[in-house]
Amino acid sequence: MANITDVARLAGVSHQTVSRVLNNENTVRPSTKARVEAAIAELHYRPSMVARALVTRKTRTIGLISTGNPLYGPSSTALGFNEAAREAGYQVTSASMSTSDRGAILEAIDVLVAQNVEALVLIASDVASIEAVQDLELQVPLITAESSGRMGGHSVSIDQFRGAELATSYLADLGHRRIVHLAGPSTSLDAAERERGWRSVLASRGLETREPVAGDWSPESGYAAAERLLGGGDFTAIFAANDQMALGVLHALSDRGLPVPGRISIVGFDDIPEAAHFIPPLTTVRQDFGELGRRIMESLLEVLRGQEFGEPVRTEPRLIERASAAPVGAGRAVTQPIAPPT
Amino acid sequence: MANITDVARLAGVSHQTVSRVLNNENTVRPSTKARVEAAIAELHYRPSMVARALVTRKTRTIGLISTGNPLYGPSSTALGFNEAAREAGYQVTSASMSTSDRGAILEAIDVLVAQNVEALVLIASDVASIEAVQDLELQVPLITAESSGRMGGHSVSIDQFRGAELATSYLADLGHRRIVHLAGPSTSLDAAERERGWRSVLASRGLETREPVAGDWSPESGYAAAERLLGGGDFTAIFAANDQMALGVLHALSDRGLPVPGRISIVGFDDIPEAAHFIPPLTTVRQDFGELGRRIMESLLEVLRGQEFGEPVRTEPRLIERASAAPVGAGRAVTQPIAPPT
DNA sequence: GACAGAAATGTGAGCGATCACATTTTCGAG
DNA sequence: CTCGAAAATGTGATCGCTCACATTTCTGTC
Q1: Listed GO molecular functions (chains A, B) (predicted)?
Q2: Residue B315's beta-bridge partner residues?
Q3: Which CATH topology does B56-159+289-315 take?
Q4: What confidence score (pLDDT) does residue B282 get?
């Protein structure tokens, strides 16, 4: 590979002039600039980012850490972020891991920092991940996609609390008085926010609050949770903390012959691409993950340009009405606890 | 940040000795090694990967390009790859894009190569992406996750053809004689392989082959395709090229009151986490995407160690039996073309 | 305790760019 | 023309490390 000196020699100028052309400083005479560019083209020269990074101390690279399984939400956020970063001229070095192990996260951060990333982004909503980075002394800014506010200004998120309010109010407006919650795992901050939103609406409307049952986001856990919910007493609506669990619920109710929304209404969360084709199509809370990813990059750019972290950026989700929730009494309400199948 | 000279000074040795400790060459006396390590710890020293890369010309970085929407398959593959890479001491710089635009791909490769990645991985199954890289003259090895064999030895994949055979044979063994195919987009190499597998089984068993209807992987397209399929004539089974489209089919059939698998059996492809909770639970072909990602890294390591590309690595998918396919005639077969709803 | 050979450590150059500053060239005004 | 300021270009140091080779310090043997 040719280097800057080779180009300089061929163009008959000094290496510094080549450097000036490379960084298009406008103190180079058009005629020399043309000569240099010709030499660059002839040698197929590409400046070494590594050498440049060594002296400028800028790698134009951002470290992206993501934990947990490759779910639709985080994956979409990562994609949105990645595209926005590339557009802004940044590279993204990603460290993905299926665990949220503190040691693994710190190790990944260490490697990224050693590689001189200019900033870190953490896409993860579980307490373990957030806590792992919370009080870290870092040389570079770190932003999380996290909605509880625990990271102070260093976060960009979709308002999970608001989303849960939307879902729960919608069900309450439909006349449901007993709205149970299928919560996400207790390790998830987003899950906690969603539960909080649900509780808040129930409380403000004076509705009974039954202790929620928690799943782990998977359809399996949704299925299992539905059985526990059904064994636990009377209700007409379920607010599930994500669409996958809602699917499990749909399945469980179908297995028992309980019509949705005839007897039980369901609202999910996320609006995954499948949700519109669940049977029945799922009413859910849509989060624009791509947008979230782009916003993260925007915030990061501000910080990288020297601005202080401002208020946490928080965007609003929105309710998508489909067919899984209906006015209470549209079918017969479940009035008795239902025994599990024998 | 401290540099190698600072450490050397504090430890009372030369920078070269520090370098030796860093690269744990065993020509350093244990006592000096300990002194150096103490100095490293005291200064919180971390060697600059950038400086190291400049001289060794090795960045220990791999460029990962992925195109298209964040589907379960590619995302899982990327995760598996990322974890394997980290374990092997490599970083992953990823360029994800929702398009498969040739220009965008070449641009991304250019940026990655300029950054001195040691290898490139392309996770994409559409013709455009593969063609974009197919005849590229690159300084670094490039591996694709691609099953058609178009990339020669430079690919690692799950045998899509075999998976389709599995699905189709399963339906045929169940007694189905008219098995239609809901294909993936014509731009997808994987889709082409799946269709080829379906055709192959049909041909070898002397079964009628109806022209498949193509979707775009989305549940919406599955729904629409089901309607076209139903309008097109008689059949008792559908092999859908992926689970999401199978979901759309399930939805369409449910809307028409056609029982699955009573009248129509369905087999999908991928085994996404939701598939087990579709109504009915979907019989499908499972691909181990995480494994695929790890295999890609394995192959890459061999190449990076100087071995030649060998035969393309090809792993087998496997059929997961659930409830969406049943022996023909378990319900009444559809004998007349069904008019679309008015 | 002298010596050779091995083991341990040190020295200076160089990777490929940018930075700070020095030097040369150009251009317009008098 | 000459002069001086502005524009254009050049020079050498430097970023933080590894490489190649030089030098010093240990060993063990006689």
Answers
A1: DNA-binding transcription factor activity; transcription cis-regulatory region binding
A2: B158
A3: Rossmann fold (3.40.50)
A4: 98
State pLDDT tens for residues B119-129. 999 998 888 88
Same fold: B4-47 with B160-286: no
Who wins on pLDDT, A210 or A139?
Answer: A210
C1' of C2 to CA of A4 (Å)? 55
Query: In whole angstroms, what is the distance from residue A54 CA to residue A51 CA?
Result: 5
A149, pLDDT greater than 90: no
Instruction: Give the CA-to-C1' distance from B320 to C5 in angstroms.
Output: 69
Q: What are the pLDDT digits (tens) for A303-319?
A: 898 877 777 778 999 99
DSSP 3-state assignment of A279?
A: coil
CA dist., res. B81 & res. B290, Å (int): 7
Is there a contact between B166 and B285 (Cβ–Cβ < 8 Å)? yes
Distance in Å, residue B118 CA to nucleotide D17 C1': 19
Q: How many CB atoms lie within 10 A of CB B134?
A: 14
Residue A74 neighbours by CB distance under 10 Å: 23
- Calculate Rg over the CA atoms of chain A: 26
For A59-159+289-316, give the CATH class: alpha beta
Q: Any idea where the domains of chain B sit in the sequence? A: 4-47, 56-159+289-315, 160-286
Strand positions, DSSP E, A124-193: 142-144, 156-158, 179-183
Beta-strand pair A142-144/A213-214: unpaired
* Tens-place pLDDT, residues A38-54: 999 999 999 999 999 99
Residue A119 pLDDT > 70, yes or no?
yes
Return the pLDDT at B185: 96
Report the pLDDT value the prediction gives residue B314, as an integer from 0 to 100: 85
Under-50 pLDDT residues of chain B = 332-342
Residues 176..215 of A with a Cβ closer than 8 Å to B: which? none
From B263, B265, B257, select the one nearest B283 (Cα to Cα): B265
Judge whether A304 and A61 are in contact, CB under 8 Å: no
Are B82 and A94 an interchain contact pair (Cβ–Cβ within 8 Å)? yes
Question: Residue A110 and residue B277: Cβ atoms within 8 Å?
Answer: no
Interface probe for A, chosen from B274, B287, B288, B289 (most Cβ of A below 10 Å), is: B274
- Of the candidates B97, B80, B66, B100, the one whose C-alpha atom is nearest the C-alpha of residue B287 is B80
Average pLDDT score, chain B: 92
- Per-residue pLDDT of B294-328, as tens digits, reads 999 999 999 998 877 777 778 999 999 999 999 98
Q: How many CB pairs under 8 A join A and B?
A: 148
Q: In chain B, what residues touch A223 (CB-CB under 8 Å)?
A: 277
For B253-259, the CB contacts below 8 A with 24+ separation are B253/B226, B254/A279, B254/B279, B255/B341, B256/B230, B256/B338, B256/B341, B258/B334, B258/B338, B259/B331
Please judge whether A276 and B50 are an interchain contact, meaning their C-beta atoms are less than 8 angstroms apart.
no
Q: Give the CATH superfamily of A4-47.
A: lambda repressor-like DNA-binding domains (1.10.260.40)
- CATH superfamily of this structure's domain A160-286: Response regulator (3.40.50.2300)
